[in-house]
Write a structure and sequence with these properties.
The protein is mainly β. The chain contains no helices and 11 strands. Strand 9 and strand 10 form a beta hairpin. The mean pLDDT is 94.
């Protein structure tokens, strides 16, 4: 299973970036996987990874207080893709951003397997 993130880069303070992350693949090679919550986390050196934004399969969202009003999370369920539109970026937003996808998949014997996939991370750097 893969989560492929893209869209990071270097931007000046006040600028914008849009991150994308597409989930693909399965454990059992059968079309029995459902992706539920998808989210973006970020991490800077020496700090714990923090939740930036989360979106359910139904479209409900929540955000870290530090990004409310500036970041918008959205998703395309047909493509199992999650987006993070980041506006009014600040130097404090500099971090490696990781996407996640929570899934449930059924084995050939019908047993449910739940888990969370993580993307490889994409660097966002905001200069002052």
């Amino acid at each position: 299973v893969q989560l492929q993130a893209s869209g990071g880069g270097l931007v000046q303070a006040g600028g914008s970036l849009r991150l994308s992350c597409a989930a693909s693949g399965s454990i059992f090679g059968r079309n029995t996987r459902s992706v539920n919550d998808m989210a973006w986390y970020r991490q800077t050196p020496g700090k714990q990874r923090e939740l930036v934004a989360k979106i359910t399969s139904g479209g409900s969202t929540n955000y870290a207080d530090s990004v409310k009003g500036r970041f918008t999370i959205s998703r395309d369920n047909a493509k199992n893709t999650v987006y993070l539109q980041m506006n009014m970026l600040e130097p404090e937003d500099t971090a490696v951003y990781y996407c996640t996808a929570d899934y449930i998949e059924y084995s050939p014997s019908g047993e449910p397997v739940v888990g969370r996939d993580w993307g490889q991370g994409t660097q966002v750097t905001v200069s002052s």
